[in-house]
Amino acid sequence: MTLPFLALLCVGLCAGHELRRDESLPRPSIQALPSWVLPANSHVTLRCSTPTREINSRDIKFILTKNNASKISSPDSPEGLAEFHLTNLKSSDAGEYTCEYRTESPTRRSLLSDVLLLLVTGELLKPSLHTHHRGEVTAGENVTLQCQQPRHVIDPSTFALLKKGTSTPIMVQGPVGVETDFSLPSVTRRDTGNYSCVYFQPRTPFWTSQPSDELRISVTGKVLTISEMAGWLCYLPVDFLPPEYIGGRFHPSRTLGLGKVMWGEEVRARISWRNGQELLLTERESE
């Protein structure tokens, strides 16, 4: 829904003149929970806060501003924090939000927070997301994901790369043409996941596309030769090393559980470190 006015404000207007901003006050911060890119009819909380240790927070009142125009105020915020709840989001809720706060006794006005862009998806047709990599990707490789607008859309847009399970976009690029490349350099297993992308207008009304179909990226580990493994283990903290390597000793047969192996032989192995962490080695490399 469109933001309701909790109070009609003329922020900082006192006796016919505007209250100047006090640069000595800590700048507030603003964040969107769970994300700043959300589908229509979902809910979001815009949270404004300021470091309470640096000011007397008992008389703080926060003001949320959208697109430098419409404003709403919070009740008194004794904890130096205020939350503004937007429900049943519509495309009209998209925009650039900032917050500030005022104190009483004496009356002071803070600087504006950084700008938070809120996007509501679904107004534009969905883009496509492609990669040249098929199937599994080896750790350490560079992966490029290309997001492309529908063919009939020719206006330059800004693009955002999304990852399922991650609250904020992985990357934002633009405004660019009708397509853009997102680069994931030296991927690790943490980059495994389902990706999608959206494009949006970089100015009012900030219309945003539906998300693209999801693209699965699966990152596997590395396979090292026994000699490479021995050299690599030398750089690990002792808490990460398997018991067989404590004291500088490396026994491939016992450490890797492979039976009899030769130096220089390529292996596939799963190693469990003393702290319970696990490294999976699966990529073949030539010596």
Description:
With 287 residues, this protein is mainly β. The protein has three domains: 13-121, Immunoglobulins (Immunoglobulin-like); 125-219, Immunoglobulin-like (Sandwich); 226-281, no CATH class. It has helices spanning 226-233, 252-256, and strands at 13-14, 17-18, 29-33, 37-39, 44-49, 61-66, 70-76, 81-86, 95-103, 108-109, 116-124, 128-131, 136-138, 143-148, 157-163, 171-176, 179-184, 193-200, 208-209, 215-220, 269-272, 278-281. A hairpin with a 2-residue loop joins strand 1 and strand 2 (17-18). It is elongated, with a radius of gyration of 26 Å. The N and C termini lie far apart (61 Å). The model is unreliable at 1-17, 231-241 and 243-287 (pLDDT under 50).
Summarize the structure.
The protein has 287 residues and is mostly beta strands. The protein is built from two helices and 22 strands. The strands form six sheets. Strands 4, 6, 7, 9, 10, 11 and 19 form a seven-stranded mixed beta sheet that branches. A five-stranded mixed beta sheet has the order 13-20-18-15-16, with no helix packed on it. A three-stranded antiparallel beta sheet has the order 3-5-8, with no helix packed on it.
